[in-house]
Amino acid sequence: MRPRVINGLLLAIVILLWLLLLGFHLMQQMVSVLRTDQPLIIGSLYYRASLVAFWLSSLMLAGRLLGNIEKLHISGLLWRLFMTGMVGVSLILVSTFVNRMMSNPIKGYLSAFFFCLALAAVVAYFLSALFIFRRLIFYPRTRRKITTWQFFTAVLLVGMVYPVYGSEYWERITYVPLVLVSLLLCSHVRWVSYLNFNQKLRALGLLSLNILVMITYLVAEQLLPQQLGIRIDDSVFEVGFLTYVVIFSMVYSIFSVLVLFFNLPTSSVFERESLEIASFEKINQAIQANLDFTEILRTLLDACLLTANARAGWIELTPVEGMADPEIKIRSRISGSDVAELRESYNLTQKVLNEQKFYLVRHMGKHKSFRNQRTRFRTLLCVPVYSNSTAYGAVFIVSDLVNAFEEVTIKSVSSYAEQAGIALENARLIKSNIELERYQEQLKIAKEVQTQLLPRQLPGDRQIEMFARSENADEVGGDYFDAIKTPDGRYRVAIGDVSGKGTTAAFYMAEVKGVFHALAALDLDPHTFVATANQAMSECMQKGAFVTLTYLEINPALKQVAMIRAGHCPGYFYCAANQSLRSLREGTLGLGILRSGNYRSMMPAPTLVSYRPGDVLVLFTDGIVEARDEAANEFGYERIEAMIRDHARGSAGEIADAIVNSAKLFTRSKLQDDYTVLVIRFT
Most buried among 194, 283, 290, 639, by the most CB within 10 A? Predict the structure, then answer.
């Protein structure tokens, strides 16, 4: 049945039993009017049994309405209790005043009504006090407190037997354990330590007012029947359930007032807050000191379990690529099967990360997602762990007690999770920085190695001047140039560009250098040189990679250049005699594109160029041609041709600098790709 239906049925039963008690009193008044020697109906066994039933149903109703108070607002709870008591006191005062004003014919019947009304007010007030004080005692919940309260409840139920079977035997066997258990429960006033000065002062005043209300009820219990002219059997109310509840309420109220009074001038709450801050800083330092994700998460879980006094817990990390569910990174005092069973019910990790707030299941046995599971745990708290930029996961803590985690506990756990998120973010950034620094250091080494691979100075003599200017878009690149002078005075020159950029291109560039020097030592003709280089590079490069290359052999004795262009940018030859500029476009495919014996057959004969003093040969990579400005316009071949014509009379270095500076001025920034300009001037 639904809780509201059950509460409605209990309320109806309480009202019916109260009406039954009222009926007994009205019958007693009717008999008193008709006979002078009337029997005492109110003291009969039926009346006693009805009274016990009224108490029991009222206890059950109050337990359902007040037994699961979640938030602990001390002042609010005590204020509501006081107002409930004042309503009852007002009813008693009104009934006394009205009773004196009424005439005799109906005075007796109204007196019976007022008495029953006062009885209901007393029961409602003290049962409210019982469960409100129970909430204070259970702050926080422990197994020992629950066991003690269960024993106290059993004593109260035994006390209900006395009105039916009243005897000194029941009085002796219940009073002693009642007093002992009441004193034991009254010692649980830990909630006082969580109040500041103003809260303690308000609680002290409200408890004092409630004590006055209780005293008023006790006095009214003795005087009200006589004032109203009600005849009752005093033994019915002398010992029993209601008396026990009154004793417990009075003892706990007085004890709480004393504790509050002696704690009022102290600074215990500030000491506790300072201790919490110190503990928080200590845990925070422990978390921040670690850069290892696992150690940070382990410290977080240990701190949460210690703070919440939880039975077990675990931490889930957000799914990584290739995983459908969050990963259980750390767990403590709980088996993997138990975690898996709880995770099947509800995907809380994604929920708390999306909402960025905690999720609390106060009673898993009543929660729609957990009620069908056979688990020993009753309370579950899930708190997200995230930073401003990254969602890491969630920390779970569980307890085998119902409603085990208080607001202050949840706040502390949330703070730890927040700090852990910051620590994880710092660890991630530091790890990324370390990896970046390691990568940059490797690139620095690679750049130094690549710099050593490229010639620092090109060979030359009185007849030939060579100059190269090269720069990488990244730390390392794929552009290559080199020149070797043979013993017989010839020059073998190469300029190339490996597909791609970065470390891969730099690696293949080193391969090109090795191939160039190895083949240059064999004294091969240009046609055989390029064909053999294609075969060598095809074997050492992965598919999809290739090298563009311009290879030329200069013969000073014949004043002739033999050149083969393998997929590389066209070169330019400037003839000083007629001031003409020739584009050297004849060529074949780049190295590594065609990886078969057919490559050699597809190669054209070398381009032969005769030179004279003053002539210039310019070679370059596509980083110059494809340089773009802000409007995405390319630098192009026309601008290169213009630079060659304008600076043809300059040195090889001046021509190379003019081309590079013009390209940079065109783009107004650093060139986007690796570039190399190699100028050969014949003198």
Answer: 283
Nearest-angstrom CA–CA distance, 347 and 326: 9
Asked if the domains at 270-430 and 454-682 fall in one CATH topology, the answer is: no
Query: Is the Cβ–Cβ distance between 613 and 576 less than 8 Å?
Result: yes
| Domain boundaries, given as residue ranges, for the chain | 3-266, 270-430, 454-682
Token code pair at residue 144: 């020992």
Token duo for residue 178: 């009642």
Sheet holding 327-332, edge to edge: 327-332, 312-317, 391-399, 379-386, 359-361
Question: What digits encode the pLDDT tens for the residues 140-184?
Answer: 888 889 999 999 888 888 777 766 665 555 555 667 787 888 888
Contacts (Cβ under 8 Å, ≥6 apart) of 464: 491, 554, 556, 680, 681, 682, 683
Give yes or no for a contact between 393 and 317, defined as CB atoms under 8 angstroms apart: yes
Query: What does the alpha-carbon distance between residue 279 and residue 271 come to, in Å, rounded to a whole number?
Result: 12
CATH class of 270-430: alpha beta
Residues 380, 670: Cα–Cα separation, whole Å: 58
Chain segment 4-24, per-residue pLDDT in tens: 889 899 999 999 999 998 888
Structure tokens at 103: 């005439």
Distance, in Å, from the CA atom of 494 to the CA atom of 484, rounded to the nearest integer, reads 9
Contact between 588 and 565 (Cβ < 8 Å): yes
Question: Tokens at residue 673, please?
Answer: 């790709």
DSSP per-residue string spanning 621-654 = -HHHHT-B-TT--B-HHHHHHHHHHHTTTS-HHH
What CA–CA distances, in Å, run from 405 to 279, 310, 357, 429, 519?
19, 8, 16, 34, 79
